[in-house]
Design goal:
70% helix; binds geranylgeranyl diphosphate; mainly alpha; Farnesyl Diphosphate Synthase
Length: 306
Amino acid sequence: MSVGHGTNFSEYFQNLRSEIERALESYTQFSSDCPEILAEAIRYSLLAPGKRLRPILTLMAAEACGCERQAAYPAACAVEMIHTYSLIHDDLPAMDDDDMRRGRPTCHVRFGEANAILAGDALLALAFETLSKYTTDSIKAARCCCELARAAGPEALVGGQVDDLEAESRSQGNHQAENYNLEKLEAIHRRKTGAMFLVSLRLGAIVAGGSELHLNSLSDFGRNLGLAFQIVDDLLDLKGNEASLGKRTRKDAAHGKLTYPGYLGVEQSSRRAEKLIQQACESLQSFGVKGDRLQALARFVVERNK
Ligand code: GRG
């Protein structure tokens, strides 16, 4: 697909992914004060083949706001570090108890539970160190740290996870009896999944010195994209392929999780994801052609098979 910037979109997307991976590699060179097992566990999970969607959003948002994307590498990598920490902790026996992630055994399976908890803790701290140390403008760095902390904190990522776990344990699969509704489902995903999408875009715009109009447009884009991503994630859990996804499937139903297809059915969930992507793309109007790549990424999110 060509998006009017001279390069094919998938080539562009792949370039961003490689740049992010090189930057992640460079930000995880530890001194001998970091125990070898810890360095190995961190790098094992962080450098595993993830899609890098969130950091790609950061770089694309920075570019859409007219900045060289290199300036946003620290922010992009900080987002990926927090995302990876949340995956490591989510996979733990006390949470989702998963044995496969990004096509390999989960961190606790490979390194033991204590080391996996500590690798997650270390990534959370490393994210803020990377963001504050390598973002050249210190005022922008402070604003980014504050927004990222909020997105990773009690009113967003962690709060959404707590409510999700609680819903799962209370329902035992019977969501009708528990009087669940779409509003509750979306309130969980807005915090658990959506907040990280939203902040990924906002950090790119902040580093680029984007206008309030651009920040607001990207926030609307991120809200709709985050929800659409979660719906597609639920659909893939139901009908996706473990080998291409690199993780176990059909876990949601087994855990009695409240999901979009569980609530709305497959057809209606797909239609809702499509509609959200359409709305996401509409919110990019103020960018003109500079929003084309973000629109292409949004399409990738609904059409993906992994
Ligand atoms: C433990 C603090 C804490 C939070 C956990 C993010 C999260 C909250 C849980 C992860 C499990 C999950 C299914 C979350 C929904 C978001 C999601 C689908 C994450 C996986 O993101 P991808 O598909 O993963 O972008 P890759 O591996 O490609 O980066």
